[in-house]
Amino acid sequence: MLILPVNPAYKDSKEDAPVDIGGQTPIEKRNALDDLNLAAECVYHFAKTGELSPALKWEKAPWLE
Description:
Elements: E1 3-6, H1 36-49, E2 57-60
Antiparallel strand pairs: 1-2
């Protein structure tokens, strides 16, 4: 199962996020984190607890449903 974060700034967007690094798979803006501090907080929380951060809403990857 693939779980993706929901970026609250783009929660209703269906637009692809801009690719800033070559070789990325396209992903919608709603599932791309543009706040690096929040991304780091989520990684830290997962490393510490083994669970997804409660700071964000999470959803299954829509292409796997």
